[in-house]
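Students often ask why we bother encoding 3D structure as a string. The short answer is that it lets us treat folding as translation between two languages. Here is a chain of 201 residues written in the first language.
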Amino acid sequence: MINSKNRNTLIIVGIIVILIVWAVSAYNGLVKKEVSVSDAWANVESVYQRRADLIPNLVKTVQGAADFEKGTLESVIEARSAATSVQIDAKDLTPENMAKFQQAQDNLSGALSRLMVVVERYPELKATENFRDLQAQLEGTENRINVERQKFNQTVKEYNTSVRKFPANLIAGMFSFEQKAFFKAEEGADKAPDVDFNFGK
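And here it is in the second language, the structure alphabet:
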């Protein structure tokens, strides 16, 4: 027969075991969601890199057009260089770092849009197979960027919710699980864009 002292000891041990099991489960859940954020970020970086990889060929193709505006090409080249130089580790997705990354990518988007506006004045360039192929690849890449950004934001939302919710936030605080920053909508993103890659097709 278990006396009251032993019963109390068993109850305390049972509570401790339950707390340990819960803590391990909460920790592993946070790790899993943090890994999901890292995977989503890798996909975002991959599609942005895909766009950057297309630009040298685009520049070479456009350079072939007679009297093409040199300043427009230079701005694209400079914006690409700046965009590819901003690298962020998935463990360091702070609002400040994300703002730098997004600003560099938005500058490149703007430079590409201006380039495409100038291309409108060169129908012989738009008619080449090489340019049409690059145009289609850029369109597809821009669409993929939007999809991966949305997936990333959703994954970050789920992770951040877990980090903040009680009682998991106790484990998050103990093991330094920090909230991650989101992609923010570009200014004017709620308005229809003035420029697209279709050129009225």
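Translate back mentally: The CA atoms of residues 163 and 173 lie 8 Å apart. Keep this in mind for the problem set.
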